[in-house]
Amino acid sequence: MPHLTLENVSLRYDGGAPVLSNVSLDIASGEFIVIVGRSGCGKTSLLNLAAGFLTPDSGRVLVDGRPVAGPGAERAVVFQNDALFPWLSTAENVAFAARLAGVAQAERRRQADRLLDIVGLAGLGDRPIWQLSGGQRQRVGLARALAADPAFLLMDEPLGALDAMTREGMQDLLLNAWHQSGAGTLLITHGVEEALYLATRIIVMAPAPGRIIRRLDVDFGRRRLAGESARSIKSSPTFVAAREDLLDSIFEREAA
Ligand SMILES: Nc1ncnc2c1ncn2[C@@H]1O[C@H](COP(=O)(O)OP(=O)(O)OP(=O)(O)O)[C@@H](O)[C@H]1O
Description:
- The longest helix has 18 residues, at 164-181.
- The chain has a six-stranded mixed sheet with strand order 6-7-8-3-9-10, sandwiched between helices. Strands 2-1-4-5 form a four-stranded antiparallel sheet, with helices on one face.
- It is α/β, with parallel strands linked by helices.
- It is built from ten helices and ten strands.
- Bound molecules: adenosine-5'-triphosphate.
- Pfam families: ABC_tran.
């Protein structure tokens, strides 16, 4: 089973104050790990280390026990404002890597349509990108990331730019995409409810220096996948209590 491991990583930018100090984290396939924490605690820096965009000052980043030297196709990254190519159709954006790899047009289209179906955009393959809404574009970005059949999916606030209603729908879509792809997933969010709803494990970070202060296993997403409604889950006493507990951790408040 593929593992993406951060082993005692520490990081400073340009010799400044430590941004991450001795952080260890393991992401296995089938896991949905969500990182929460106050602004500036190093969440994005951690994701950039996992993606291979940054190199730690000490510690190691490993895929299946082998050190990574940079970005790799097995670790797909979805950004908040995904840069899609406006001159390509929706389907061609999804299949962009396949196009570079020389996959024939008909085959690219078949792959793209399958992925557009997974992200709820069936039938929109021929649309120009500029005719899609913000939420739809975000889904194209997700479909494009899934196109590489990555072992790991790394997402930095992927729903941050969306309005609340669209965001709730997209949470279900992320759950389904995660479930269907089986990719080990790492997601950063500022939404505490979003974290509880999506994660199999929540990692709470604290700043100065950025470090992990809590790991919490949850199963609300699995309840959703088993058919319980989002409303029923989010209004259940266990969910509400977990939300308060998590907020206490994030703001390092003493439980009353
Ligand atoms: N390229 C950079 N050069 C110098 N300092 C940086 C750089 N990127 C981030 N930092 C600093 O490192 C710290 C952690 O930043 P990071 O973006 O990882 O935190 P974050 O938890 O993702 O924040 P937010 O929730 O606000 O997005 C912050 O103090 C930030 O100012």
